[in-house]
Amino acid sequence: MERHEEERLCGKWRVACELYGYKLRDLFTWRLLKTIAMGQVLSLLICGTAVSCQYLANAGVNTPMLQSFLNYALLLLIYTTILSTRKGDRNILQILKTKWWKYLLIGLADVEANYTVVKAYQFTTLTSVQLLDCFVIPVLILLSWFFLKTRYRMVHFVAVLLCLLGVGAMVGADILAGRDQGSTSDVVLGDGLVLLSGVLYAVSNVCQEYTVKNLSRVEFLGMIGLFGTLISGAQLVLLELCSVREIKWDLQISMLFAVYALCMYALYSFMPVVVKMTSATAVNLSLLTADLFSLFCGIFLFRYTFSALYIISFVGITVGFVLFNAVPTYTALPEEDPGEDDPGEDDPGEDDPGEDDPDEALADHTV
Questions:
Q1: CA 259 from centroid of its chain's CA atoms
Q2: Considering the entire predicted model, what is its pTM?
Q3: What is the SS3 assignment for 226-245?
Q4: Helix 92-120 / helix 217-239 crossing angle, nearest 10 deg
Q5: What span, in angstroms and rounded, lies between the C-alpha atoms of 206 and 279?
């Protein structure tokens, strides 16, 4: 009788009952706290890129493709070089023979995602960009559902809603402060570019999650560095060569480019570790606080006006992120026939994600 009553209540309060099954000490584990901390480190790195971009814009420098090219070049220098020194099936030549077109498409999606969101500022407002940029979250959920077979519980959707409400509070604070920068020359085009950027980011991030959880972080970053450098370099020559020639180089401009490139390199290097611990969706939820960190820096560096809504926004996003990671997702994969051999056991030469990457020991695969 009591069990029947409990099931009836759970039918009405499904989210609460999902959390009820976990003790508080089981929710707030060291792994969860580490995930939260690492997610905020990623947000701080994005904040570093935003602040350096703002200083470059104030100096009259508008070369987003050059900035992206520097990041991809660093990835090429480090990770692609590591791939070229490997032997056997893990060597870059073997990877290119079998999967070059896949990484070409991933690199294209990643480069164009960065470019389209920056381009959108020329046609629409900051408010539109901040709101529509959240479109990456539902696209990630859909792609993860269909291609990674990730299954979510009701509590995960509530967590996403909390994060989006936090973003809404941040945007509201910007509007009240009169800080709705940007252009309104072609709002439809600008908003479309933001939505396109969200789709491309989602594609790149889902591919990243699959690669780092099934292959290796070095392979993903090495191939992204290779194709990202080629694609961004070609676009740089075609679109920004005149802008680059007009840059008045001095120590300050050079330092700002260096800060941006290093922050982006650290972001790309560190993000796969966090993705492997959690998921691409969880990481993007944590990155929603990056705009808040940028605003907090703007209060001190650019004399922005403080608003209590920023604190409410930060709390909402953080609570949503914690809630999303507190209850694990699960994978809907077909059950394997016990009589069939495990393909992973028959291929001793398969790339081990932990091999050659000591820092990946932190990244346990969680379903």
A1: 19
A2: 0.78
A3: HHHHHHHHHHHHHHCHHHHH
A4: 50
A5: 9
**CB contact burial 286-301 (16+ within 10 A = b; e otherwise):** bbbbbbbbbbbbbeee
* pLDDT band at 148; cut points 50, 70, 90: confident
Report the share of the chain in percent with pLDDT over 70. Answer: 77
Q: Which of 331, 31, 40, 82 is nearest to 210 (CA)?
A: 331
Bin 86: left if φ > 0, else alpha if -120 < ψ < 50, else beta.
Answer: beta
Instruction: Mention every residue, 6+ apart, whose C-beta is less than 8 A from residue 31.
Output: 277, 364
Query: Percentages helix, strand, coil for the chain, rounded to the nearest 5?
Result: 75, 0, 20
* The Cα angle at residue 202 between residues 201 and 208, in degrees rounded to 5: 90
CB 324 within 8 A of CB 177: no
Which phi-psi region, left, alpha or beta, contains residue 356 (left: φ > 0; alpha: ψ -120 to 50)?
left
Q: Are 236 and 70 in contact (CB under 8 A)?
A: no
